[in-house]
Amino acid sequence: xxxxxxxxxxxxxxxxxxxVASTSAQIPTTDSAQQPAQPAQKLNPGECGAAGxxxxxxREQEYMHLGYKLLPQASxxxxxxxxxxxxxxxxxxxxxxxxxxVILQRLGLTTED
Length: 113
Description:
mainly alpha
């Protein structure tokens, strides 16, 4: 009786191992060595978005740099909104340069937005 149980256990274990091995052989891999390298994209300043990064005016870009210095804890989205507001609203210039958190409050934003 004991030999039958041992043989049955061995057969079940072998069947399970075979099933696992055949399943893992069918899973496609996403190894980067198998995929061809993509050429680096050239930035196009005339194109908006990440592909060109050319949508912001020079003044807006200056305020973005200032925002990153004055609001280091702020998200990039909050900085972008701050920079756009400062570049388009000359009356806010003093607050933009000396108290940027006031600008975020006027826009209804927090540093986490």
